[in-house]
Design a protein that fits this description.
Elements (H helix, E strand, L loop, with lengths): L17 H20 L3 E2 L5 E3 H7 L9 E3 L5 E4 L4 H12 L6 E10 L11 E10 L4 H17 L5 E7 H12 L2 H12 L3 H10 L4 H10 L3 E2 L2 H9 L3 H20 L5 E4 L12 E7 L7 E5 L13 E7 H8 L8 E6 L4 H13 L3 E6 L15 E5 L10
Parallel strand pairs: 1-5, 7-9, 13-14, 13-15
Antiparallel strand pairs: 2-4, 3-4, 5-6, 6-12, 7-10, 8-9, 10-11, 11-12
Length: 394
């Protein structure tokens, strides 16, 4: 093992410098306020969880978990997502009434990277979970809230792709007959390897009609008309039930007035294995990965002893910042440079400006080697110099 350089960071870890931190904080604040307006309450969970509980309940691959041992010999993990920890809290402490829970969070999650490829091992998610509501209205609500939050933060061009994992599973199982064969075909969708998908379908021992149904499945992308086409290639009732849910979802989004942001992609699947129904991803210009995703997970809470459904979404804050580009809004920082003779006056002036909501830095003249150089760091420079002469601050 080679010796680490003094400034080297663990694989996938990043520093957040002041300007990016402020930008991220502004975006986080806008989204948080929008979530609160929709009645969602914020919650915090520990960074460390037990591997046997949250770690195993999470849909993140085992090799992506950061693991360590506590003093009692229990295996711990750095939380790999927020859905499983919130499910744990909801099941153990909050689900005491027959009322849906609306919870929100903003927190860092951790997923180990095998090699350096630009992917972070630590990143911030901000999202919501609507728990104990099994209606399609709840799915529509979280999609509408996500749309509203993105619009409030200033993102103009984005598209939400919606699918239904239940429809995919039922169609593949109906045609292919076994879970193993269905999962093998689903893997091509997850990898978005559509060429490999077609070649695999052609190699299967199926009738020409069934092969064509599987090939036509790849065409199920677009507007409301996609659902009608999907009805033509599915035969069993669970598959049709999934399509009826998507049709109902479309009507709900239309009533919200947000249908221009939504497209159906019935080939959509996810690496998050706990999704059971409607699922979605949101894409923005100039970003090669989804900036957010979500969906229904009706079986996760069973792992914590509660039999109820849930749905939610998470936004990847760093990817959202990339989609937003450079934000023009910036709160200027004022600097008051003072000498010993006018220090009290400088302190009083700074107090008055801060009371007005102005950001102020106080700087002793003796600690500045190059006064003129301060102009490159601060937006406004005021001087309070005594005997040396530089005149009163404005």
């Amino acid at each position: 093992m080679s010796r680490l350089f003094m400034f080297e960071k663990p694989l996938g870890m990043r520093d957040t410098l002041p300007e990016l931190y402020e930008t991220k904080n502004r975006v986080r604040s806008v989204i948080s306020e929008e979530m609160k307006k929709w009645g969602y309450q914020f919650i915090e969970t520990p960074t460390l969880e037990y591997y046997e509980t949250v770690g195993s309940a999470s849909a993140i691959l085992d090799q992506q978990l950061f693991k360590l041992l506590d003093q009692q010999g229990h295996t711990l993990v750095l939380r790999p997502d927020m859905t499983a920890p919130i499910a744990r809290v909801a099941a153990s402490k909050l689900l005491k009434e027959d009322l849906p829970l609306r919870l929100a969070y903003s927190a860092n999650v951790y997923r180990a990277q095998q090699r350096e490829g630009g992917r972070p091992a630590e990143f911030e998610q901000i999202g919501v979970e609507c728990i104990a509501d099994e209606t399609v209205s709840a799915d529509g609500e979280v999609i509408a809230l996500m749309t509203s939050a993105l619009s409030e933060v200033g993102l103009q061009e984005f598209q939400i792709s919606v699918g239904h994992i239940g429809f995919v599973q039922e169609l593949f199982l109906q045609i292919l007959g076994t879970e193993e064969r269905a999962q093998a075909l689903t893997k091509f969708l997850y990898e978005k390897n559509y060429v490999g998908y077609r070649e695999h379908v052609k190699s299967l021992a199926l009738s020409s009609i069934d092969k064509q149904r599987l090939l036509d499945f790849l065409k199920l992308r677009g507007g409301e008309e996609v659902i009608e086409f999907a009805f033509e290639i599915t035969e069993n009732e669970p598959g049709k039930k999934a399509l009826h849910e998507l049709k109902q979802l479309w009507n709900i989004i239309v009533d919200y007035g947000m249908e221009t942001k939504l497209k159906f992609d019935l080939t959509l699947v996810s690496h998050m294995s706990y999704y059971t129904g409607i699922l979605f991803e949101v894409y923005a210009d100039q970003v090669g990965f989804p900036i957010g995703n979500g969906g229904r997970y009706d079986l996760l809470l069973q792992k914590f002893g509660k039999n109820t459904g849930a749905t939610g979404f998470a936004l990847h804050l760093d990817r959202l910042l990339e989609a937003l580009g450079e934000l023009v809004e910036k709160n200027p920082i004022h600097c008051i440079i003072f000498s010993d003779e006018r220090r009290r006056e400088a302190f009083q002036l700074a107090k008055e400006k801060r009371a007005e909501g102005i950001k102020v830095v106080l700087q002793d003249i003796n600690g500045v080697k190059n006064v003129d150089g301060c102009t490159s760091q601060y937006d406004d420079i005021s001087f309070l110099i005594g005997k040396a002469g530089r005149g009163p601050a404005e």
